[in-house]
Amino acid sequence: EVMRAHYLAGLAAYDVDRRAVAAEMFTHPISDIYIDLEDVLIQLGAPVFGDALETAAGAPFDDSNDADIRSAANAVLSAIEQVEASAPQSEHPAAAIQAQVLTNMIVRAALQYEFAMLSDTPNSPYLDGYGFFKSAEVIANRHMTEIRVLDTVVADALTEAMTALALAYPEVMAPEQSSVDTGDL
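User: That's the sequence. What structure does it adopt?
Assistant: Structure tokens below.
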């Protein structure tokens, strides 16, 4: 999900004509996550996608046009989807695992928002948080019904947190001032 978050944030930055920022978001997952993840993917028999990551990371810097850049980023997002199917089975209900992953993305987004609002240079942590929020949206849209069946209290808390994050992250680049109390968030 952290990889997905970077790509969702990168595409959003690209949409507001922040090409260099988008390229940075496309590059981070390679060294921060994928290098360690690839061996696990191989052990699981999951598809590896290092080449797709490298293509997407390089696209904003080579002669790729807008469609090629978006296509390269979307290829990574598709690869992430494919890899999810290779996740090992668990003794825990899938909804419980998704609730934990969603919680993780929510906490990351909230922490990045707080860091951004305290920073003299808020755009980088804000963009990371924006990506975590967008990843959380993907999870919530896909799994909230199952989470709610498993535990309505947890589902309500996650929904409330997502509502607060939506107020904190209305756009991809950091606002001039905080729109949400970081303590409340």
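Residues 123-150 form the longest helix (28 residues).
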